[in-house]
Design brief:
Layout lengths: L2 E5 L3 H13 L3 E6 L2 H11 L3 E5 L7 H11 L4 E5 L3 H13 L3 E4 L13 H12 L29 E6 L4 H10 L7 E6 L3 H14 L3 E4 L3 E4 L3 E4 L5 E7 L4 E6 L11 H11 L4 E5 L8 H9 L3 E5 L8 H8 L5 E3 L1 H13 L2
Parallel strand pairs: 1-2, 1-3, 3-4, 4-5, 6-7, 6-13, 7-10, 8-10, 13-14, 14-15
Antiparallel strand pairs: 9-12, 11-12
Helix pairs in contact: 2-3, 3-4, 4-7, 6-11, 8-9
């Protein structure tokens, strides 16, 4: 049984969310209309999960997440409307320690939430399983210092990254610490709605030495560049001329019920990308990335996985490790150093 606290400044939305969760077998043990009440509710009820509105009067969702993670670390699912401001504040909440987010259909107050009831129940159930005991405080740096490679690889390396729930801060940590001088071509598959992947790419571009952008329908990624798979489309590398990797997006059927799927990108990358080739599997629920990692290993690539005990959701790295092809298991803070060491030795 999962116990939840519902936080939203709209009484109508609190009632609607609570009804959806109750119908899905989740016990709503309390609710709150703002961040201050949310902190008190978490302390009083000790829930398994919190659904948190982003924008609220007084103490907003971001500050509430920070305070809860400092005093009573609890898995939190942000409920966000899609606007540029809403997307940016959602990513700030993830950096503060929230596990994942769910897009409010129709805006802040909407009767259409019931149409997505199963999706919301699933999201809350997944987030409730997250281990947030190792989440750093908001004041602690989540990004490692930039590592300077001892030498530039003769071939620009390719880095393929897979992540899902709990992954955005981990992806940010790795990309923000990859030095431009490594000349890496980076392809990221982060399970995320299409309305948010462009904002995620823009946010990463503002803090990374690499040029980061959302993948186009067809394009190339070259040295010191990174692309984020567009939500709702698979990302397929097509050809590697030794400098640039050409790719395209497809609307083929979801794999593991997700699109984009890391297995699709990893398998295609294994077939066309030149070495040095590194695959990295980070936090997320399910098996995505495991089969793709086997293809990368067969192609001579190196496979790294996030330490499952450090991941918010251990499923993806754990199942990848179980394939037996993983070359190293590391906390995210050490992942960039390992990547640099691997490609420098090629």
């Amino acid at each position: 049984m999962v116990d939840a606290v519902v936080v939203d400044d709209s009484q109508f939305m609190r009632v609607q969310i609570a009804e959806v969760l109750k119908d899905g077998g989740i016990t709503v043990v309390g609710d709150a209309a703002n961040g201050k009440e949310a902190i008190d509710a978490v302390e009083h009820h000790d829930p398994d999960v919190v659904t948190m509105d982003v924008k609220m009067p007084g103490m907003d969702g971001i500050e509430a997440v920070e305070r809860i993670m400092e005093t009573d670390p609890t898995p939190i699912l942000m409920l966000s409307r899609y606007t540029e401001e809403g997307a940016d504040t959602t990513f700030e909440a993830l950096e503060a320690g929230a596990v994942d987010f769910f897009r409010k259909p129709g805006g802040e107050v909407s009767t259409s939430l019931v149409q997505f009831a199963d999706d919301l129940v699933e999201a809350v159930s997944v987030v409730a399983t997250a281990d947030v005991s190792a989440v750093p405080s908001a004041d602690a740096p989540r990004t490692a210092s930039v590592t300077t490679p001892q030498g530039t690889p003769t071939q620009p390396p390719t880095i393929l990254i897979a992540a899902s729930t709990g992954g955005p801060p981990e992806v940010q940590s790795i990309l923000a610490s990859l030095p431009e001088t490594l000349n890496a071509r980076v392809l990221v598959v982060q399970h995320m709605p299409g309305d948010f992947t462009d904002r995620f790419a823009e946010r990463l571009d503002s803090i990374c030495e690499l040029d980061v952008s959302e993948a186009e329908r067809a394009g190339t990624v070259g040295p010191a560049e990174a692309i984020i798979a567009q939500g709702g489309s698979h990302l397929l590398p097509r050809e590697d001329d030794g400098v640039e990797i050409s790719y395209r997006l497809t609307d083929d059927e979801p794999v593991h019920n997700v699109r984009p799927a890391a297995d699709v990108t990893f398998e295609a990358g294994a077939a066309v990308c030149t070495e040095p080739l590194v695959g990295v599997v980070l936090s997320g629920m399910g098996y995505d990335g495991a089969v793709g990692a086997e293809h990368l290993a067969e192609a001579g690539g190196t496979v790294l996985a996030q330490e499952p005990a450090e991941a918010s959701i251990a499923g993806m790295p754990k199942h990848t490790i179980e394939t037996g092809v993983v070359d190293g298991v590391f906390p995210t803070s050490e992942m960039t150093d390992e990547i640099v060491d691997i490609v420098a030795d090629e």
